[in-house]
Write a structure and sequence with these properties.
The chain has about 300 residues and is α/β, with parallel strands linked by helices. Helix 6 packs across helix 8.
Length: about 300
């Protein structure tokens, strides 16, 4: 009997959803940074086993929206919940009580009839007695299928979590080939890797005002008959002052972003990469419907 199913990972911004999804899959599928609202699209990550296939959807973190982009991200997350077989509700272990953001998610979960596993992340930051209190508090608010404490960073509890998920899967086919681990195109992966580096290297006020667009991605052979990817991408920002920060003195910041992104892309693509980056200003893009369409959930 083969089992398969789709599951959404939901939680507040910056609770470790992307780190968890990478750990579940064993590959870099979602970008990770210490900054909130890193995830912008519902990325699918695929875990293949001999008798099952699990498709995880990493959703944008729930937050108070400030523009159309923020509204779309929340909309994408809640829309995803209606289209999956199970949900992983990820919270932080060091939360002393149920906060406002988690309360909003719990209310949303009560509106839909789905199987939900409560996943408590960062258990290395809390004493066992406090962890048990936190579990009791959440159990009193919602009827979870089970509760699994984990550490997304170290991988502790991941195996147990996968076993619990398999119990919830319906009988079904393999929706993706066994070799696949994400539904993202290479262009999308390139954009996300570049954005990850900008998030990690730039000042706090700059990163969330950017988006990346891959203009060119083509594989060719060098004179030495080695395969190489030529990738050209543009980093769009909302202010002229931000453009100067992204480029940096004598172009040093842009070079650093490009160097770090190229290293990751070469690992993912398994070949050399020639990466060229440009920076352009596009004011108010976060309220531009044509651009925001990129972040909406595809049916």
């Amino acid at each position: 009997m083969f089992k398969s199913g789709f599951g959404a990972i939901i939680g507040r911004a910056n609770v470790g959803k992307s780190t968890l999804i990478n750990n579940l899959v064993g590959e870099k599928v979602a970008i990770t940074t210490s900054k909130p609202q890193t995830t912008r699209t519902a990325i699918k990550a695929i875990v293949n086993n001999e008798n099952s296939q699990i498709i995880f959807i990493d959703t944008p973190g729930i937050h108070k929206p400030k523009n159309k982009l923020g509204e779309t991200l929340n909309e994408t997350t809640f829309q995803t919940l209606n289209e999956v077989d199970f949900i992983l509700f990820l919270i932080e272990a060091d939360s002393s009580k149920i906060g406002k953001g988690d309360s909003i998610i719990l209310e949303k979960l009560k509106e839909i009839n789905k199987k939900v596993i409560l996943v408590i992340n960062k258990i290395d930051l809390i004493k066992k007695a406090d962890l048990l209190k936190l579990i009791d508090e959440y159990k009193n608010t919602y009827s979870f299928e089970t509760v699994v404490p984990i550490s997304a960073t170290s991988g502790k509890g991941i195996k147990e979590l996968l076993e619990e998920i398999k119990k919830l899967l319906p009988e079904g086919p393999a929706y993706y080939d066994k070799e696949e681990y994400t539904d993202q195109t290479m262009r999308q992966l390139a954009e996300e890797i570049i954005r990850e580096k900008t998030l990690k290297l730039l000042q706090d006020e700059v990163p969330h005002g950017i988006y990346i667009e891959t203009e060119k991605m083509k594989k060719r052979k060098t004179k030495e008959k080695e395969e190489i990817y030529d990738i050209e991408a543009t980093i769009y920002c909302i202010r002229k002052s931000h453009k100067g920060i992204i480029i940096g003195k004598e172009g040093n910041m842009l070079k650093k972003i490009g160097s770090y992104a190229r290293q990751d892309l070469e690992k993912i693509l398994g070949t050399k990469v020639n990466l060229q980056l440009w920076v352009k200003v596009k004011e108010n893009w976060q309220d531009d419907e044509l651009i925001i369409k990129r972040f909406k959930l595809e049916q």
